[in-house]
Amino acid sequence: MIAPREIFESGLGAALVAGLAAGGYAYAANWPSSQIFGRTLTAPRNPENGPGEIALTFDDGPHPRWTPMLMEILAQNNVRATFFLVGKYASTQRSLVREMHSAGHLIGNHTWTHPNLAMTGIRQTRDELTRTKTELEQIIGAPIRYFRPPFGARRPATLRIACELGLIPSMWNAMTADWDATESVQVTPKIAGLIERNQAAGFATSVVLHDGSHLSLEADRSASVAAAGELLARFNLSHRFVTLDRWES
């Protein structure tokens, strides 16, 4: 007969293993730098000779108000950025998307409706990526090669489907909750600190800011726009701003 204590300890051990497994899955599915489920594009080490590199990337657009403001700031600083577009918005802002592409910005796929791809089925995942890729390529007349999973969430099937479609999953190593910010002071110091930390460790920085919202076109992104301008003013002389294709190996 198994003693109650042994039953308890056995159950506790099983629960612990299950908890560790769940934690490991969550890390693999959501942590930006994780490569457990498959390779993703991350910020590389900085060049041995030359300035440190920063990629400004913007998610959840295009937005008819905030995206043009960002583009003006980028143009004033002669900087190109990477924009991961939500397909349902891009389909209604076709001229703006063409303008972004013509200005030299890199256009990426951020799915059609912004679902959590760690939770979606294979059919929906494929439809989200394929529909957005097709729409964007029709708009700009050029291949779409980069993809960012909403929330950074993915599973092995997500990355496999992206690979089949010729898409490179692209993550980041500098982000803060700019979507909740009402002033740039809530954003700029945190991102700047991450850039400096990455630089000290020898790494480039892939920054995520948001020029739109997957929830509504009514979102206020003034803090994110202002933060982008402040980051450019702070780092444009000491760093090189690049688009993500610079880091493709």
Describe it.
The chain has 249 residues and is α/β, with parallel strands linked by helices. It is 43% helix and 14% strand. Strand 6, helix 7 (188-200) and strand 7 (205-210) form a beta-alpha-beta unit. The N and C termini lie far apart (61 Å). The relative contact order is 0.20. The model is unreliable at 12-21 (pLDDT under 50).
The Cα radius of gyration reads 20 Å
Order of helices and strands: HEHEHHEHEHEEHEHE
Number of strands: 8
Number of helices: 8
| Helicity level | 40-55%
Biggest β-sheet, characterized?
6 strands, parallel
Strand content: 5-15%
List the main descriptive attributes of the protein structure presented here.
6-stranded parallel beta sheet, alpha/beta, 249 residues, 8 helices
Structure at a glance:
The chain has helices at residues 4-30, 66-76, 87-90, 94-102, 122-140, 156-164, 188-200, 222-235; strands at residues 52-61, 82-85, 106-109, 146-147, 168-169, 174-175, 205-210, 239-242.
How would the blueprint of this fold be written?
Blueprint: H1 4-30, E1 52-61, H2 66-76, E2 82-85, H3 87-90, H4 94-102, E3 106-109, H5 122-140, E4 146-147, H6 156-164, E5 168-169, E6 174-175, H7 188-200, E7 205-210, H8 222-235, E8 239-242
Parallel strand pairs: 1-2, 1-7, 1-8, 2-3, 4-5, 6-7
